[in-house]
Design brief:
EC number: 4.1.1.112, 4.1.3.17
Largest sheet: 9 strands, mixed
Distance between the termini: 68 Å
Helix content: 25-40%
Subunit structure: Homotrimer.
Family: Belongs to the class II aldolase/RraA-like family.
InterPro entries: RraA/RraA-like, RraA/RraA-like_sf
Radius of gyration: 21 Å
Cofactor: a divalent metal cation
Number of strands: 11
Length: 216
């Protein structure tokens, strides 16, 4: 398993919600992508893969093409097949691949958890695949409207997935640090008894119609 460096750990600690909000970018993946096991999280460089529906040969080529610190990001058309399981996770870990994001299904989720291999998918499925089309590896793909290029930074946790363009990495990290610091100060004000209406200045937006107190 590839060791995370300090910046990688910081990205995971900041979390996908903060990274997305601070980025100012439409960098989130569709909410249909969910972790295959509770607690899965990953950060790494994207290696995009395109696979045919019901065919996982391209994923085997992706394992060969990727290396330490990479995350395979796969367009499999969202089809509920078991494109990925324990055998492929072991092969990926041996090459230092950090995880998988796939618009499609995975299986062997208990084994993936035991291996500590983070997988995020749009389905869990035991349905088998064929091996006929080698697909594409390293060429940009589009996942439900979001373009993913090789070298983009992928961060995934239980809240969701962000894909940050490599050229935006430093800016987004600094903006996320600033946002986290600001939110820390807000939390302190809330703990002291202030309301979110006052802390965020929402009162000028109007007040709701309230039910009258019942007659006594």
């Amino acid at each position: 398993m590839t060791t995370l460096d300090e910046d990688d750990r910081e990205l995971l600690a900041l979390g996908t919600a903060t990274l997305y909000e601070a980025s100012g970018l439409d960098c989130f993946l569709d909410a249909a992508f969910r972790p295959a096991w509770d607690g899965a999280q990953v950060v790494g460089r994207a290696v995009p893969v395109s696979a045919q529906v019901g065919d996982n040969l391209a994923l085997h080529h992706g394992i060969e093409a990727a290396g330490p610190g990479d995350v395979l990001v796969v367009d499999a058309g969202g089809a509920p097949f078991g494109y990925w399981g324990e055998v492929m996770a072991v092969a990926a870990q041996a090459r230092g691949i950090r995880g998988l994001v796939i618009d499609g299904g995975v299986r062997d989720t208990q084994q993936l958890e035991l291996l500590g291999f983070p997988a995020f998918s749009t389905a869990i499925s035991i349905r088998g695949t064929v091996k006929q089309w080698p697909g594409t590896v390293g060429i940009p793909i589009t996942l439900r409207g979001r373009v993913v290029r090789r070298g983009d930074i992928v961060v995934a946790d239980r809240d969701g997935i962000v894909v940050l363009p490599a050229g935006e990495y430093d800016r987004v990290l600094e903006a996320s640090r600033a946002r986290a610091g600001k939110e820390g100060a807000i939390m302190n004000r809330l703990r002291s008894g202030e309301t979110t209406l006052d802390v965020y200045g929402f009162r000028h937006l109007g007040s709701p119609v309230r039910e009258s107190d019942p007659a006594r």
